[in-house]
Write a structure and sequence with these properties.
The structure is a homodimer. Chain A contains 15 helices and seven strands. With about 290 residues, the first copy, chain A, is of the alpha/beta class. Chains A, B: Keywords: DNA-binding, Transcription, Transcription regulation.
DNA sequence: GGGAATATGAAATAATAATTCCAATCCATA
DNA sequence: TATGGATTGGAATTATTATTTCATATTCCC
């Protein structure tokens, strides 16, 4: 009976996500001006974190007192404690991209737990994506897609660490109804498989140091038959590069001895979908 | 003759990097207490951004007046304007990551070229990594690793879109000399393969909506034999979740109809390497 | 349409925080 | 070691900012 709001009401949201959820939840039932400041808060969280009650109120087009009522309605005892939540968010969202990576990597290297391992792989993947995004050569991409789009059958060649990428390419090509053939080693019939390839086909070959000898050998064999190769590899000294018509240099970061595949995956998907689009377009053109 | 400091001195550093450089540059020539607060500022920039002059001074072990002198020595007219620089830094930092993603995604959606496709996949991968990094449940990770580390043989079960992850897990487990078996569908001997599994083994199963019927069916069969399952899937309604001892919810962003695998890959690698570490540790303990 | 409950605006007040000032201390140099 | 200048500590002062209060407006329900 004598329990007041603060005691009987829900707990005060202590982190931004909870706060956000609470606000969205109550949106309908809030008075006009309070709703106005609520919307402003979610749209401009940085302003709430740094501004003064007066400046924020002015930007949102309300009175400072309304801002304080808003905070109280959420269970805080004033604007200041509401603001803390917005500031905490900025601290934790520790996130210049680079700094977040550094933090992740530091945690991964310093920390001992399994979470640290996970962070390490996330950091490696992010770094790789970042790198390739900066360095990818657009003309190479166009060239590779043109080349592959003309192929009757696309052969996909990769072993060991790169094999997952090959299977994903094969999956995606299949989905897009593009004829393709994964050169697998299980049955030992690779040589025969390669013998079917003609210069009207094309190959996507993927290999990173230490280059799987089988990949190199098969790439050589297939290039000698005049089949054009698009290679994804990690340096210009790669043996794959010398057989390739077009090749991409992808630097993958590693963690705990395992390199990320994220950049290679992104490139592989871009090639695949790019070929799909190109075929659709030229199909349309031919009909038109 | 009548030119005062503010007029004749160097420009006031307006951005954090310049400020940082300025401080580092003068480090040697600063008086003791000022140097103390300078070091503190570079080490704890967030505290400067959010704290009050008094609280910061206390943390750094100096008087508030020293803090103000420090600001003035750098050319600011007081602590407040120095603080602005630290706040600005946080603002820009935050937006940079999100804005970069937004920019990428905008280019990907707006742009027509093949580069746009590539950007789309990079953005999808980054988003996924970001999400999983926030949402991953650490206790699940520990539970899953413990469970898998005890297994005699780890079975890996995934089809179609998830298959690349399975092959990478199998590759990595092999590298770490952990006995494992990829449940492949090629030869149609899956049922027999599953029949070898015992409760002393464990399974990593991966499936996303639309769930490959074979994966679900095999997961059911193997769980009925009492073999514990660690599942990676995309929602609590996933049929995989009901068979699993531990399961992870991974939300992958998609682009052009193909979902990213980057988050799943990172998690898969963390599990794999985590198991490797756990086994090494307990092996050591047993010997000791 | 009238009246109570609720919401809002604006200014007064209280709290908090930045800045200044001055005495005390430290340090280099003669 | 004495002396002047620079540096520092701590309290007084000033400025800024949050909060409260109260009068007014709006809304909702009977």
């Amino acid at each position: 009976m004598s329990l007041d709001r603060a005691t009987m009401d829900e707990r005060v949201p202590r982190d931004f996500e909870t706060l956000r959820a609470t606000i969205l939840d109550r949106r309908e039932s809030l008075p006009k001006r309070i709703a106005q400041i609520a919307a402003y808060a979610l749209d401009n969280p940085d302003d709430i974190a740094f501004g003064t009650a007066a400046s924020i109120a002015a930007s949102a087009g309300v009175q400072p007192s309304t801002l304080i009522r808003f905070a109280q309605q959420l269970g805080f005892d004033g604007f200041t404690s509401l603001q803390q939540v917005f500031r905490e968010r900025l601290r934790e969202r520790n996130s210049s991209y680079d700094e977040r990576l550094l933090a992740l990597r530091a945690k991964a290297e310093g920390g001992a737990g399994h979470r640290a391992i996970f962070d390490g792989f996330v950091a490696a993947a992010s770094t790789s994506l970042n790198d390739i995004s900066r360095t990818l050569d657009e003309t190479h991409l166009e060239d590779a897609i043109s080349l592959l789009a003309k192929a009757e059958t696309i052969y996909v060649l990769a072993k060991r660490r790169s094999y997952p990428v090959a299977t994903y390419i094969a999956y995606a090509l299949g989905k897009l109804k593009i004829r393709n053939q994964l050169i697998e080693s299980a049955a030992g019939l690779n040589a025969e498989m390669i013998a079917f390839a003609t210069p009207a086909d094309a190959v996507i070959a993927i290999s990173f140091s230490p280059y799987a000898p089988a990949t190199i050998e098969e790439a050589r064999a297939i290039s000698e038959r005049g089949v054009p190769i698009v290679a994804i590899t990690d340096s210009s000294f790669s043996p794959l590069a010398q057989f390739a018509r077009v090749w991409f240099e992808v630097a993958e970061a590693d963690f705990a001895g395992f390199r990320s595949l994220s950049a290679t995956m992104a490139l592989a998907m871009a090639l695949t979908v790019g070929v799909g689009e190109k075929r659709r377009d030229s199909g349309r053109k031919r009909k038109a």
